[in-house]
Amino acid sequence: MAKVLKYTLDFGTSNTLLGAVTEFEKALRMAGFNEVSFTYEPEAAAKSLKIKTDKGLNVLVADLGAGTSDFSVIRMNNGKFDSSDILSVCGINVAGDSFDYSLMKNFILPELGSRVKFKRPGSQIEHGISKKLLSQLCSPAIFPLTNDKEISRYTEDALEFLEDEEDIRKVMNLENLFDSKLGFDLMKEVEISKIELSKFMEKELFYSRSGVKFGSKLSRLKFHESAQDPLDKIMDTIDEALLLAELKEMDIDQVLCTGGSVQNPQILKLINGKFGEEKVVLSKNQDDVVGGVE
User: Fold this and answer.
1) Residue 155 pLDDT level (bands cut at 50, 70, 90)
2) In the chain, domain spans
């Protein structure tokens, strides 16, 4: 009996993804799968959400995940469609994690010495944390894997030349965080705070573990302002999906939102404002997309 693989594909915008898919398919065929087919995530989500209607609808599917935001415009007839009904598919590597990144960079990492500056004796050049290391520390995906040696070089260098006690305390926080392997633990607290900011205007994040101790007052308004760039990129990608489908906002009959970031109030506010709240449907199941083997 021939093995058949049906797999959903997390759509990206880079050409490297298409090459990876080709290599993945080759590997699967070598493993004995004779029939291999891929379905983009928004298309799979559309099939799982099952719209029942007697008339044709133009549907925008917004798959708002943790690492990517994927969109597809589909012409549906009684909840069904085939490949010719898929008017556009596009995506961007910006999603829920991007808001964690913003929260870390602007509110948490300053308490870990990200804005500390120091000078070496006899030099007027200011030194601080590198842009590369700062980016790694802000990323939920990379944070636990950041090179400890790079952290050690920075903290040892800073602590040797810093004089201000408050700056020393902040850099010590960073040193103790990595010495105690607390990166993942801190990211969990940041994620909780992000969720609570969707309910409250302010949130006090107090963290105290293994020599790492700080408090940061989080403001929903300031957080939203700091996260404007990923929001703009997500909305620009929706515009791209409409452009590729040769449709305007008014031509969309329904917007189906699914994925792990479907409850993000910032994104939903913009989508509701763009298409009208009455057109937007939220999936109750955040795990609409799966791959399978037959």
Assistant:
1) very high
2) 97-226
